[in-house]
Amino acid sequence: MVNLRIRAARNAMGMTQQELADRVGVSRQTINAIEQGSFNPTIRLCRDICRELDRTLDELFGGEDMMMYCTNCQTAYEEERCPCCGSRKGRPAAPEDICFLAEEDSLQAGILEDFLKQEGIPALKKSTVGAGMAMKAGAIFERFRFYVRYEHLEKARELLEEIRNS
Ligand SMILES: [Zn+2]
User: Fold this and answer.
1) How confident is the model at residue 122 (pLDDT cuts 50, 70, 90)?
2) Average pLDDT of 116-128?
3) Which end of the chain is more exposed for a tag (fewer CB within 10 A), N or C?
4) Does domain 4-61 have CATH number 1.10.260.40?
């Protein structure tokens, strides 16, 4: 997605891409790529850009629904740091990011899978134990992790709530 807001804020400050790049310590190509939406800046770079352009993160990089994405854990989160690994190195989540949704036992997993299918949400389902282990331990112990694209995460979480509350 092209980020028109950064360009607009930069122009309002009378700053060229090169000048902004120099101030935040990256190349002009990087600034250009961010404005073109072909590069996802780190949260740190986002903050530096905001500081130089005198704007908030929300104003330049998102709306109220902006989430960060931890590439270690494939977790989307709204907090200061990743709730799984504690890393602060997350970047703003992109629509195609594969995000962890839930871990369920095999019964719940079947239900969740059906719900997701009905809503047309493509999901990745991974067994938490190897196939050989699952056979030894019995299917009842097998658990599954579900992942969906970030653009489907909110809807998928709603479905999950529905299932858990029913
Ligand atoms: Zn993490």
Assistant:
1) very high
2) 94
3) C
4) yes
